[in-house]
Amino acid sequence: MNDINVREIKVTDYQAIYLLNQDFNPNLFSFSEEKVKAKIAFIKEKTNDIIFVYEENNEVIGYIHGSPYELLFSDSLVNILGFVVKEKYRKQGIGSILIKRLEQWGQNNGFSGIKLLSHPSRVQAHRFYERHGYTFTKDQKNFIKKFN
């Protein structure tokens, strides 16, 4: 495993990303492959977000999605919006390579750090982040309001 396998996402990666999202949370099946394809195109064309994929033998087996995070009370950060490695490839260093690539991108682009949210039940993920120098800052509840 090495970082030469990491590249920026392409719209043609949409099927692999759809499957990785299923791997992360089977309830995401309703966000179709076509919606994933459109979302990748939109993110690449209309935002300053960065999405790196890890590819091995022409198969995308992981991705990390970072988005600039601007606040009126903090230096600029990168917010991790999505981070998945295919289950059978976990614990092989791929996640470490992806997060390090995002961190390097953040440093190179003038960001002061990275933030992320992780569900309280994801204890293994929390250990991963702590091993990579991330510190737990607070519990919080997330609220959402859907528009019809």
From TrEMBL:
A single GO molecular function term of this UniProt record: acyltransferase activity, transferring groups other than amino-acyl groups
InterPro entries according to UniProt: Acyl_CoA_acyltransferase, GNAT_dom
The UniProt record lists the keyword Zinc-finger: no
Keywords, sorted A to Z: Transferase
Signal peptide: none
CDD domains per record: NAT_SF
UniProt-listed Gene3D superfamilies: 3.40.630.30
Residue ranges occupied by any N-acetyltransferase domain in the UniProt entry: 4-148
Descriptive protein name: GNAT family N-acetyltransferase
Organism: Paenibacillus contaminans
Source species taxonomy: Bacteria, Bacillati, Bacillota, Bacilli, Bacillales
